């Protein structure tokens, strides 16, 4: 006979369920100790992750300062921003420039003769579009057409042929076919409100003199009369916008550009032309970029320090420590980081060697203080010296930025102090998991044995109680018969 745990003790009248629960609690005590250990190591792993995050931020700010280009950052000041705007790259250099924009670049635009309908068939054939430069001849302003001109194809751009047939031989169909072909031309249909209002407009997608269009048509004469446009020959379309280059002077030097975005006319500077006119351009070293980078570096270092302080604190009221209280790895990391900042840089007698020369000082609590006014003053006066303090040429390890970045890479990389410590904690957690699972299996086996024994005891006591009741009844019966 057997009984389930839910009815354990019913046969014997003993509180075996409570006793079994108490035994399970006692047997599970080692599991609690393992869980406590695992929680402690998990907290340490999380703490290492926070330290790693703070180090990564410090590395990012250090790498920025290790780049020599940072200290050559140039900002642009344009006298008249309605004439042009600018963007600068790392190769830009300080200087003053006089600019005079005499002509903006523009695309060529052609318009066809009017049609009564945009949906009526016109003619079939093949349209071939070439791009190039129109030279010589005379342009009639009234008709928008050339006489005596020549056309030189742009050898760097391929011609494109478009077939016009049934279903595409209307103004709308021609428009769609040209746009679908990506021929370097944008086609549209306009309505001018006249008796034959629908006109096809073709506009080059690129600006510049070399983007003039030559359009040859083979096929129906109706299609030829609509689209043919040879600057040196038949011109069925009217030019409404001339393809032209941008023209400007930079300090009196003529500059020509096919685009209104003019690159490298001034080293490291892109001019975005907006209108014609004269203006000035002043390129100056942007000291604020360096001050901002140094400030970010100081803040990142102080964040590392405050994070470490919190994670290694000890509460005397509760006699409890934080996750990394007394942790040797953390002490080693902080020591090496401070050592980098405390080691003077090399160079000649006139070179800056320590951070205090730019207003950055190490405090007794391990944090850095920043005198922003002193930093600004030094950056304004000696950008080269500040650059040498943080960065150096390729192949050199000089500069606080380079050295700090290299240190964080070493600490975090394979074999580094932080990586080794993290790997060790992960290995311990894996081991504790194995211990927990093995212990749980032993406890489960022990509790199963207890349940079997308690069930047997319950059955035995129940049987003995039944026997006792039977004997009692017999004795009582015998005693009653004797009295009679």
From TrEMBL:
It comes from the Bacteria. It is found in: Secreted; Bacterial flagellum. Keywords: Bacterial flagellum, Cell projection, Cilium, Coiled coil, Flagellum, Secreted. Residues 243-466 form the Flagellar hook-associated protein 2 C-terminal domain. It holds the Pfam family FliD_N. Residues 12-108 form the Flagellar hook-associated protein 2 N-terminal domain. Required for morphogenesis and for the elongation of the flagellar filament by facilitating polymerization of the flagellin monomers at the tip of growing filament. Forms a capping structure, which prevents flagellin subunits (transported through the central channel of the flagellum) from leaking out without polymerization at the distal end. Belongs to the FliD family. Homopentamer. This is Flagellar hook-associated protein 2. The lineage of its organism: Bacteria, Pseudomonadati, Pseudomonadota, Betaproteobacteria, Burkholderiales.
């Amino acid at each position: 006979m057997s009984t389930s745990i839910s009815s354990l003790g019913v046969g014997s009248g003993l509180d075996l369920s409570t006793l079994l629960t108490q035994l399970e609690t006692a047997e599970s005590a080692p599991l609690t100790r393992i869980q406590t250990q695992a929680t402690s190591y998990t907290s340490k792993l999380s703490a290492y992750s926070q330290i790693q995050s703070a180090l990564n931020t410090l590395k990012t700010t250090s790498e920025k300062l290790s780049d020599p280009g940072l200290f050559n950052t140039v900002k642009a000041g344009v006298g008249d921003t309605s004439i042009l705007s600018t963007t600068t790259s790392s190769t830009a250099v300080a200087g003053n420039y006089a600019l005079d924009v005499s002509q903006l670049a523009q695309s060529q635009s052609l318009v066809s003769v009017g049609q009564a309908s945009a949906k009526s068939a016109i003619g079939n054939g093949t349209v071939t579009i070439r791009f190039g430069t129109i030279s010589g001849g005379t342009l009639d302003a009234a008709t928008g057409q050339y006489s005596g001109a020549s056309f030189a194809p742009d050898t760097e751009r391929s011609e494109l042929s478009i077939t016009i047939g049934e279903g595409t031989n209307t103004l709308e169909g021609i428009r769609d076919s040209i746009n679908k072909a990506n021929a370097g031309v944008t086609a549209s249909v306009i309505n001018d409100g006249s008796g034959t209002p629908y006109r096809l407009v073709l506009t080059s997608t690129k600006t510049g003199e070399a983007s003039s269009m030559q359009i040859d048509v083979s096929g129906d004469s109706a299609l030829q009369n609509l689209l043919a446009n040879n600057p040196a020959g038949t011109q069925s379309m009217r030019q409404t916008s001339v393809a032209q280059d941008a023209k400007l002077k930079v300090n009196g030097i003529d500059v020509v550009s096919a685009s209104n975005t003019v690159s490298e006319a001034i080293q490291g500077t892109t001019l975005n032309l907006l209108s014609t006119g004269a203006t000035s351009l002043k390129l100056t070293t942007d000291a604020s970029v360096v001050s901002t980078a140094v400030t970010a570096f100081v803040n990142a270092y102080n964040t590392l320090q405050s994070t470490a302080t919190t994670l290694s604190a000890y509460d005397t009221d509760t006699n409890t420590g934080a996750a990394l209280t007394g942790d040797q790895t953390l002490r080693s990391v902080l020591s090496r980081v401070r050592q980098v900042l405390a080691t003077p840089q090399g160079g000649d007698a006139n070179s800056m060697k320590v951070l205090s020369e730019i207003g950055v000082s190490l405090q007794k609590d391990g944090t850095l203080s920043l005198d922003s006014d002193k930093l600004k003053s030094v950056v304004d006066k000696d950008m080269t010296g500040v650059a040498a303090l943080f960065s150096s040429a390729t192949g050199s390890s000089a500069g606080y930025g380079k050295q700090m970045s290299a240190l964080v890479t070493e600490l975090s990389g394979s074999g580094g102090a932080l990586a080794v410590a993290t790997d060790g904690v992960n290995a311990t957690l894996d081991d504790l998991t194995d211990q927990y699972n093995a212990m749980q299996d032993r406890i489960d086996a022990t509790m199963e044995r207890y349940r079997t024994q308690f069930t047997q005891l319950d059955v035995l006591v129940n049987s003995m109680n039944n026997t006792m009741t039977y004997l009692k009844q017999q004795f009582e019966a015998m005693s009653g018969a004797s009295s009679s």
